[in-house]
Design a protein that fits this description.
- The chain has 13 helices and 17 strands.
- It is an alpha/beta fold.
- It folds into two domains: 208 residues, Quinone Oxidoreductase, Chain A, domain 1 (Alpha-Beta Complex), CATH 3.90.180.10; 139 residues, NAD(P)-binding Rossmann-like Domain (Rossmann fold).
- The longest helix has 13 residues.
- The two termini are 17 Å apart.
- The relative contact order is 0.16.
Length: 376
């Protein structure tokens, strides 16, 4: 079948993207779903910093590629032998396919699925299939098994979770990455206890979702850190008790330590910058935990005082996809949203069309948006 999609042919084009146009809206040929796969009519897809990192070349991926990984849609047709879904089902995508049989999956850690990671790196669906028909320069790759910036996409059924059909698509999409990653880091990776001090660096979609989850967990104080006053003001309306404006020098770290009598017990870094991660570590209490959710360039290294790991019993943890089990956590987080405890709708700042994507990524790169969603 033919469908419109946003395809990235080349990484590293300069900003502004409204001029360089890294994403081209083209009509592409999409092959039918194979075994274990399904065709989905995409209803909404969010713009995430991970998409921007591919556009910038910070997260190198094989080109060309149909971008988009935070998405929701409606199942149109099933491939041979595909079970667990039916046409008309509403789904949210998981950006790591879950094979269910590798050791991490068997241990309840599908975010670390080995075949899923290999497929994502190769730009294929789980199992190695590619359903976008070739472009003149070669095969068109799938982004994280989803390719959500398209009117229709083919995905492996292990890349999706069924949801209730009454959830608005522009809200449902957010559960596929921003909420799964940010709230999951707080509730799954750190398991923040009531009354524990929390600090979050970076008030993008993931960082603000972490603020929401910390408030839901009863953390206190909850300190938001960012360079932009507008985002800090938003964080204060979402559950943060304090806002600290970041900048050069030690001032922000000193302020956080003063607010927490020496450092926060749990400090989250959602920027994807090794220098910010070092600041987050410096803002962490003795015996506390620093959790990294952002993705720096693979070449970047972290430098910390090594003795502090032992002498202060510090912990540094990575949190990929919020250490989530999507089949468990997406319904759980949706239930918290419906109960008013996780108001993720407050993260939505812009509704776009496919043609607005380049402008949207300019806005994201400038920090002028939280979550923008393409509504099909």
């Amino acid at each position: 079948m033919k469908t419109r999609a946003a395809i990235l042919h080349e990484m590293g084009l300069p900003r502004p993207y409204v001029q360089s146009q890294p994403l081209h809206i083209e009509t592409l040929e999409l092959a039918p779903p194979g075994p274990g796969e399904f065709l989905v009519r995409v209803t909404a897809a969010g713009l995430c910093h991970s998409d921007l990192s591919v556009i910038e070349g910070v997260r190198p991926r094989p080109m060309p590629m149909v971008l988009g990984h935070e998405a929701t849609g409606i199942v149109a047709t099933l491939g041979p032998g595909t079970t667990g879904f039916a046409p008309g089902d509403h789904v949210v995508f998981s950006f790591v396919p879950m094979c269910g049989t590798c050791l991490p999956c068997a241990e309840g850690r599908p975010a670390l699925c080995q075949p899923g990671a290999a497929a994502n790196t190769a730009g294929t669906l789980l199992g190695g299939a590619m359903r976008w028909c070739d472009a003149p320069e070669g095969p068109i790759h799938h982004h994280l098994g989803v390719s959500g910036f398209a009117e229709y996409t083919v995905a492996n059924a292990r890349s999706a979770v069924r949801i209730d059909p009454d959830l608005p698509p522009e809200i449902a999409a957010l559960f596929g990455c921003a909420v799964l990653t940010g709230a999951g880091a707080v509730l799954n990776t750190a398991r923040v206890q009531t009354g524990a001090s929390v600090c979050v660096f970076g008030m993008g979609g993931v960082g603000l979702a972490a603020i929401l989850a910390a408030a839901a967990a009863g953390a206190n104080p909850i300190i938001a850190v960012d360079t932009l006053r507008e985002k800090l003001n938003l964080a204060l309306t979402l559950g943060a008790t304090h806002a600290v404006e970041a900048g050069p020098g030690p001032g922000a770290i000193t302020e956080i330590r003063d607010l927490t009598a020496g450092g926060a017990v749990y400090v989250f870094e959602s920027v994807g910058n090794e220098m910010v991660l070092a600041q987050a570590y410096a803002a962490t209490a003795r015996g506390g935990t620093t959790i990294a959710t952002g993705l720096p360039h693979p070449s970047k290294m972290l430098s910390i005082p090594a003795v502090s790991l032992v002498a202060e019993e510090r912990t540094i943890r990575g949190s990929y996809m919020g250490s989530a089990v999507p089949l468990r956590d997406i319904p759980r987080f949706v239930a918290l949203y419906r109960a008013g405890r996780l108001p993720v709708d407050r993260l939505l700042t812009h509704r776009l069309t496919l043609e607005d994507l380049n402008e949207g990524f300019d806005r994201l790169a400038a920090g002028a948006a939280v979550r923008q969603v393409v509504v099909m």
